[in-house]
């Protein structure tokens, strides 16, 4: 895979746990991606704090997901009896198939995975002033293919208590801790405990307002109807061996995908593309 290195832009290294890591450099930013899960573990614009949260307790083992960054979730979201939680792709070994520099110094990296249940997966990451990630699923078999998919993105923030999330007012959601169906009433969602909500029928950009780091993060997406908002807070963090007990105030997951009733059904020969673009600006 060394043939995909580009001097000054793309370098393959031995990363944590001796897993292969790709270091990306552009004039605007740096990024890191592991072949394990095609997992983006780092994106940082010059002069800004890292955009993505990575747990200091994350494992880097072939049979374990990385905790933080952008886990790719497919073909199911959440737990499944006798199977790995959140599907098969975040612990699979992806192949780097192509890299290129374009558009005045941006870097494109294309990854593939052997078919899963007659579905071909291709993942394209673009690094520049923004970070964009595009997962395309092509159904090459017969009959219909049904799956859930999600980019389970962990964002680095200054302090959960001062954070707010906008863009979901009026959106229906379910709360993992309260039975029933709800509609978001808040212009700006604040978090003061464990939050695990799935918002439905929402395709709009989400903004994460972080006054502590004086940063606004924008999560724009296409090919996604569901947005998940999650913070494990105290008890769940303590229960997670690959998450530090004191890390939850510095992270928030805003996840873009198609889960539950919004799972995807592909007829034979068709394709679904989930795309997320992350950008940030200094808060005035
Ligand atoms: O994204 C929300 C969620 O489904 C939570 O319920 C929590 O389990 C989180 O994902 C992390 O899951 P993981 O399997 O990565 O520990």
Written description of the protein model:
The chain is mainly β. The longest helix is centred in the C-terminal third of the chain and has 7 residues, at 233-239. It is 2% helix and 47% strand. The structure holds 6-O-phosphono-beta-D-tagatofuranose. The site of 6-O-phosphono-beta-D-tagatofuranose has 10 residues, from strand 20 and strand 21. 6-O-phosphono-beta-D-tagatofuranose binds at residues 65, 78, 85-86, 152, 196, 228, 230, 253, 255.
Largest sheet: 9 strands, antiparallel
Strand content: over 45%
Instruction: Report the span from N to C terminus.
Output: 43 Å
Classify the secondary structure makeup into a structural class.
mainly beta
Number of strands: 23
Query: What is the molecular shape?
Result: globular
Q: What is the radius of gyration?
A: 18 Å
The order of strands across the largest sheet is 6-7-8-9-23-19-18-13-16
Which stretches of 5+ consecutive residues score pLDDT under 50? none
Helix content: under 10%
Mean pLDDT: 98
Ligands (ions, cofactors included) = 6-O-phosphono-beta-D-tagatofuranose
């Amino acid at each position: 895979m060394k043939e995909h290195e580009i001097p000054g832009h793309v370098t393959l290294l031995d990363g944590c746990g001796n897993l292969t890591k790709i270091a990306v450099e552009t004039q605007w930013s740096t990024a890191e991606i592991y072949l394990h899960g095609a997992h983006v573990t780092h994106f940082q614009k010059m002069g800004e704090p890292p955009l993505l949260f990575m747990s200091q307790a994350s494992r880097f083992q072939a049979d374990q997901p990385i905790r933080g960054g952008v886990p790719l979730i497919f073909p199911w979201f959440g737990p499944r009896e006798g199977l790995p939680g959140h599907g098969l792709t975040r612990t699979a070994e992806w192949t780097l198939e192509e890299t290129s520099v374009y558009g005045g110094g941006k870097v494109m990296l294309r990854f593939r995975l052997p078919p899963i249940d007659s579905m071909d997966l291709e993942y394209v990451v673009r690094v520049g002033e923004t970070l964009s990630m595009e997962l395309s699923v092509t159904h090459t078999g017969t009959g219909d293919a049904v799956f859930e998919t999600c980019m389970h993105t962990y964002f680095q923030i200054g302090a959960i208590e001062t954070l707010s999330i906008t863009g979901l007012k009026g959106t229906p959601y379910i709360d993992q801790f309260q039975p029933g169906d709800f509609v978001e009433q808040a212009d700006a969602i604040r978090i003061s405990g464990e939050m695990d909500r799935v918002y439905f029928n929402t395709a709009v950009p989400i903004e994460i307002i972080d006054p502590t780091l004086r940063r606004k993060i924008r999560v724009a997406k296409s090919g996604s109807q569901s947005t998940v908002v999650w913070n494990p807070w105290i008890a769940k963090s303590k229960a997670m061996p690959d998450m530090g007990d004191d890390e939850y105030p510095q992270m928030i997951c805003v996840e873009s995908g198609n889960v539950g009733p919004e799972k995807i059904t592909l007829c034979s020969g068709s394709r679904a593309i989930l795309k997320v673009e992350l950008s940030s600006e200094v808060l005035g």
